[in-house]
Amino acid sequence: MSSESKILTRDVEASVVPIGTKVTLLKGETAHVTQSLGGSYTVIVNGNMFRIVEKDADALGIEVTSAPVAASSSGPMTREELEKKVWESLKTCYDPEIPVNIVDLGLIYDCHLTAIGQTSYKADVKMTLTAPGCGMGPVLAQDVQNKLVSLEPIDEANVELVWDPPWNQSMMTEAAKLQLGLM
Q: End-to-end alpha-carbon separation of the chain, Å?
């Protein structure tokens, strides 16, 4: 994958990949953008890999465009429409090292919506990681939670990391396997 070099325009918080530790990258450092999917950016600075979240894209000289989630113009969403929106939203979450969304990777084991009012819902998600020791788990879980609560009718989202059954490549969609050259 080709990378685009950017000079950091300000100090910026980033997560070390794959351990998830928060660090500050300094203004003036060169960041090589290796992946920009789902609103986050995977960069290499001084030979180390980091993940920068969308709200801090300006530090890379990238314009932050946070488009509001469109409300349904024909009244409240049906449960079926909301479930579709939830899965679409989950497909915008990416592992910083793998250019395939977490749904197609097979990392989402369950997503259950519960009404908590006439027009609001709670989402409960069970997800896993490609490797149990991956420190990015809390970062990815937070990304999932943030994307879900940004959906208009979802007021609460709980994301649980689970390890049973253990993830394996057979859980990926055919499209993901094809994209990663496994077919």
A: 19
Q: What is the pLDDT of residues 14-66, one digit of tens each?
A: 999 988 899 999 999 999 999 988 889 999 999 999 999 989 999 999 887 65
Q: Are 32 and 3 in contact, with CB atoms under 8 Å apart?
A: yes
pTM value? 0.78
Q: Strand, coil or helix: what is 70?
A: coil
- Which range, 75-79, 96-100, 156-160, is most confident? 156-160
- CATH number assigned to the domain covering 4-60: 2.30.30.40
Question: Which residues neighbour 50 within 8 Å (Cβ) at sequence distance 6 or greater?
Answer: 14, 15, 16, 17, 23, 25, 31, 42, 43, 44
**Rounded alpha-carbon distances, angstroms, from residue 70 to 73, 119, 122, 137, 151:** 8, 15, 19, 29, 9
What's the rounded Cα separation, in Å, for the pair 10 and 8?
A: 6
Contact (CB, 8 A) for 52 and 12: yes
Kindly list the domain boundaries of the chain, sorted by start residue: 4-60, 79-179
The whole-angstrom separation of Cα 126 and Cα 120 is 20
Q: CATH number for the 79-179 domain, one of 3.40.50.1820, 2.40.128.20, 3.30.300.130, 3.20.20.105?
A: 3.30.300.130
Q: Write out the two tokens for 160.
A: 């649980």
